[in-house]
Amino acid sequence: MWQQHRSKIIAAGVALVVILWMASGGFTGDSDTDPANTSNSEAAESMDENGALDQLDRVQVETLSAIAHPEQIQVSGRTAAARQSQISSEISGQVSEIMAQDGALLNAGDTIVTINIDDREAAVRSAENRVKQYEIEYRTAQRLLDRGFSTQVEVATKRAELESARATLNRAQLDLANTRVRAPFDGVLEQRMVEAGDYVQVGTQIAEFLDLDPIKVVGFVAEQRIGQVETGQEGRAILPNGAEHRGEISFVSRTADPSTRTFRVEMTVDNPDLKIADGLTARMVLDGPVRLAHRITPAVLTLNDVGSVGIKYVAQGKVAFQPVEITSSNPDAVWVTGLPDPVQVIVVGQDYVQVGQTVDAVEVNSDDAATAAGLTPPPEMEDMETVPEINMPAFETETTNPLTPFEDNNDEGMETP
User: Fold this and answer.
1) What's the rounded Cα separation, in Å, for the pair 321 and 203?
2) Which end of the chain has fewer CB atoms within 10 angstroms, the N or the C?
3) Using CA atoms, how far apart are residues 306 and 310, in angstroms rounded to an integer?
4) Tens-place pLDDT, residues 16-54
């Protein structure tokens, strides 16, 4: 009996020993308690933590120095005629002839329209005769006074009558001259309001007349800048078509507009060919005082949390923000004041870093700064590693058209899947 179960007891004992040994970890080992594995895990964790702490955002900077640059005062305005006259009739009568059309270039004294003379020539002749009569009577009274046959009162009366006759003659001559409505100065007949046959009265508007050479550019300067503008100051007028014309300030108002607190300023610009029309939108650019300023590309301008326009720069390895004042600008660059000198302006990556953040500043040359500001990808994209190309093995596949019918519809001809 014992002999029959001996082999089974031994096998069971061996199996029990093996099970106990495996349970103790002696066969597979415990990776959690392995000193080597524990050291590697801690090192990897430490590397990850240090890597996160030591990795800095990279930005590109350009070192700029301030240079002397004239501050520019830019004023929005419009063109205006140097003189504008509303010509009205000084007599009553019917328009007899049109002598000039709209847009005509006239010299001072040229006739625009004529009004019927009627009896005005006769009135002049009558007044001339009365003047002659009273001149004779006045001289006679003086001779009689010298001989003692007249008095001072009679002489004074004749003299008053003579002066009245002369005034009447002057009025008649003026009425006759006013039958011809003339240009008051050299200029352009902008618009004529009457036609032949129209009846006009004293005060009826006849035409609008403009003097466009020189022409004025009128704008309004803020009260903060009015102290930098003075009569005789040179500047430029830029028209909507891009044309620029030199001129000088001819008038600076001493009274501010009560609603806008701005001051009216006028620039005089030569316009010999009359190509500058009245009423065009124009921009005055005046040369102000020379100041130290930095020339930057507009792409580096940014806003802070309160909406102030400024520039992010690097100082002692950290990002700083400085509000700036734009003194002048053009499509390619702007001139600003308020920055430290010299300054490392962030030209790439300013939108991806915060004020006070420590960064890795990479210097770029001035030729590449503008290009880099618009074309270089963000810093975090530059640090991305290129994903290696994975060569996948090619597998041959057999394609079966599911819509192709079986040639043999018998069940025997169909393969069993």
Assistant:
1) 66
2) C
3) 11
4) 766 776 666 544 444 444 444 444 444 334 344 444 434
pLDDT tens digit string along 365-404? 655 554 544 434 444 444 444 334 444 444 343 434 433 3
**125-181 pLDDT, tens per residue?**
999 999 999 999 999 988 888 888 888 888 899 899 999 999 999 999 999 999 999
Beta strand spans in 137-243 (E): 180-182, 187-192, 199-200, 205-222, 234-238
d(CA 22, CA 315) in angstroms, rounded, equals 64
pLDDT of residue 370: 47
> DSSP assignment, residue 376?
S
Nearby residues of 281 by Cβ (< 8 Å), 6 or more positions away:
76, 77, 78, 239, 240
Amino acid at 174: L
Q: Tell me which residue of 202, 203, 205 sits closest to 84, measured CA to CA.
A: 205
Identify the CA nearest to 229 among candidates 203, 178, 264.
264
Contact call for residues 35 and 261 (beta carbons, < 8 A)? no
Of 82, 78, 83, whose CA–CA distance to 237 is shortest?
78
CA–CA distances in Å: residue 163 to residues 133, 138, 144, 158? 12, 10, 20, 9
Q: Which of 360, 355, 363 lies closest to 319, judged by CA? A: 355
Secondary structure E strands in 239-324: 244-252, 262-269, 281-296, 301-303, 309-315, 318-323
